[in-house]
C-alpha cells in the first residue's frame, strides 16, 4: 500500500467532517462537491481497475461496503427544513464523526498493516486468490469514494423529503388561509 491510500483517506475525512459537522445548509454546491472531488481525485489514484476475476470481485466488494457504510453514516445526519432560509439544513454530531473516523482509521491501519504487520499473510492470500496490489488498492479507494457518494445521495434524498413536506404544509396552510378569507368574504 502506498501513500495514495493515506492521502485520499485523509482528504475525504477532512472534507466530510468540514462539510457536515454541526448545522449546515444543504444546497446544490454541498451536494455536488463530493462528485466533483471524486471526478478530480480518482484519476490520480486509481492504478487501473481490474476488469475480471477476483480483483474485480474485490473492487465490487469494496464499493458495496462503501455504499453500506455511507448509508450508515448518513443515517446519523438529521435533516430539517429551515423556514427563514427556505432550505434544508443538516445536523451531524459526534456519532457521525466517529463512524467516519473509525472507517478511515480502519482503512489506514489496513494500509499500514499490509506493509508492517501482516504483509506476508496478505501477500500469500493475494497470490493464492490472484489479486494484484493495484486491485487491492483500488478496492480501498472504491470503498472511500462509494461511502462519500452514498452519504451524499442519502443527504440529498433527506433534504428533498423535508423540503417537499414543508412545501406541502405551506400549500395546506395557504389553502386554509384562502378558504378562511374566502368564507369571510362571502359573509
Descriptive report:
The protein is mainly alpha-helical. It contains six helices and three strands. The chain has helices at 3-20, 28-45, 53-75, 94-116, 119-129, 133-186; strands at 22-25, 78-82, 87-92. The protein has a three-stranded antiparallel β-sheet. α1 runs parallel beside α6 and α3 (53-75) runs parallel beside α6 (133-186). The radius of gyration is 22 Å and the shape is elongated. 30% of the residues are buried. Mean pLDDT is 86; it is low at 180-187.
| Strand-pairing-aware structural class | mainly alpha
The largest β sheet comes out as:
3 strands, antiparallel
Radius of gyration: 22 Å
- The total beta strand count reads 3
Order of helices and strands: HEHHEEHHH
Q: Whole-number average pLDDT?
A: 86
Distance between the termini: 79 Å
The neighbouring-strand order within the major sheet is 1-3-2
Number of helices: 6
**Estimated helix fraction:** over 70%
Low-confidence parts: 180-187
- What is the molecular shape? elongated
Strand content: 5-15%
Amino acid at each position: 500500500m502506498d501513500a495514495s491510500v493515506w492521502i485520499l483517506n485523509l482528504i475525504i475525512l477532512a472534507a466530510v467532517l468540514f462539510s457536515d459537522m454541526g448545522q449546515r445548509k444543504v444546497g446544490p454546491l454541498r451536494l455536488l462537491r463530493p462528485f466533483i472531488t471524486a471526478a478530480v481525485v480518482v484519476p490520480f489514484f486509481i492504478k487501473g481497475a481490474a476488469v475480471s476475476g477476483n480483483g474485480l470481485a474485490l473492487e465490487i466488494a469494496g464499493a458495496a461496503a462503501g455504499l453500506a457504510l455511507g448509508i450508515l453514516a448518513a443515517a446519523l445526519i438529521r435533516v430539517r427544513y429551515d423556514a427563514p432560509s427556505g432550505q434544508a439544513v443538516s445536523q451531524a454530531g459526534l456519532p457521525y464523526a466517529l463512524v467516519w473516523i473509525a472507517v478511515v482509521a480502519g482503512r489506514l491501519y489496513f494500509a499500514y498493516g499490509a506493509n508492517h504487520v501482516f504483509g506476508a499473510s496478505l501477500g500469500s492470500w493475494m497470490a493464492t486468490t490472484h489479486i494484484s496490489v493495484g486491485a487491492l488498492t483500488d478496492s480501498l479507494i472504491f470503498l472511500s469514494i462509494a461511502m462519500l457518494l452514498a452519504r451524499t445521495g442519502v443527504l440529498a434524498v433527506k433534504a428533498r423529503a423535508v423540503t417537499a413536506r414543508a412545501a406541502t404544509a405551506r400549500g395546506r396552510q395557504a389553502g386554509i388561509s384562502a378558504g378562511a378569507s374566502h368564507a369571510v368574504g362571502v359573509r
